[in-house]
Amino acid sequence: MIFGLTRKQLSLIVLVVQNSTLVLMMRYSRIVQKPGQPMYIASTAVFLAEVLKIIACLCVMYRQQRYWSKFALVVRHEIFGKPAETAKMLIPSSLYALQNNLLYVALSNLEAATFQVTYQMKILSTAIFSVVLLGRSLTRAKWLALVLLMIGVTLVQSQSMSSPPPEDGSVQSPFIGLLAVITSCISSGFAGCYFEKILKTSETSMWVRNIQLGLSGAFFSLVGMLMYDMQPLRQGGMLQGYDWLTWVVIGNQALGGLLVAIVVKYADVILKSFATSISLILSSAISFYFFDFKLSIQFVIGACTVILATYNYSLPDKIALSATTATTTTTKPH
């Protein structure tokens, strides 16, 4: 028990808070600026998040080894002494770097609630790549859940495309936001399955792999930053437009994923799906009250469909199959 909560209850809270706050804070940081304050450069935030992630993993490794000599030996042997292993991380790290940059593009053009719902398409891309790369097979119930997922996302996005421009005068393009989310979901699905395949075919620890991933990810982020944002970097510097919220977003993006990875071992897949569902509802409510987000029947139906699909996809195969059968039985006309 921690603070009177069980580990599963605490895991649920952590997952909900991380899933919701990252999207909401990132969205807010991209649309609200103080008078005269320039917009921070998204690529610099992605790069700094990778650096912070590397530092965090090194701290965990040092704590595990307890002594500096052992820690230095592990770093020298596992990270710098195995360039071929680090090279394996080039593909997923480049995709994660692309994904993280696209998240800023998407949240600059989509409402937080719309993004949260649409981003669940990563379940579909992950499922497809798990079949192709990991040789898994999906039951009929899971394929049905994926179809429901696409229907729900389509409903939500059709509302986004038909929504009027925001009243605050900011320039947004739902189409660009949608393309950014779709590309991000595809890269996330492929990178996640590729990374899982590497983890399962080697005995290297997760923290070492995350450092290898972070090093190559920081390299690709740095290259992208210098290639596409050199002009604004020369004019205003790397930290232009930064404030406390920007640093919180960077910290959340860097440490949130690691925190979730630790917490997930205490949470089962059903609890994770509950966390996703609660995050979607929470993001929609906060967007409605604080971001002037217009809720419609179309969005509510689409969001509920996505929540149902996410929950059904997370169920164990036998339970999911029986749930689908029960639904079919109750809706069958007599």
From TrEMBL:
- Spell out the GO cellular component terms annotated for this protein, sorted alphabetically and separated by semicolons: Golgi membrane
Q: Which GO terms describe its molecular function?
A: pyrimidine nucleotide-sugar transmembrane transporter activity
The subcellular location is: Golgi apparatus membrane
Query: Can the keyword DNA-binding be found in this entry's annotation?
Result: no
Recorded superkingdom: Eukaryota
List all membrane-crossing ranges: 12-28, 40-62, 143-162, 174-195, 207-228, 244-264, 271-291, 297-315
* Topology term for the membrane: Multi-pass membrane protein
- What does the UniProt keyword field contain? Golgi apparatus, Membrane, Sugar transport, Transmembrane, Transmembrane helix, Transport
- Coiled-coil spans are none
Q: Which Gene3D superfamilies does the UniProt record give?
A: 1.10.3730.20
Recorded family membership: Belongs to the nucleotide-sugar transporter family. SLC35A subfamily.
Q: What is this protein called?
A: Nucleotide-sugar transporter-domain-containing protein
Q: What is the species listed in this Swiss-Prot or TrEMBL entry?
A: Phascolomyces articulosus
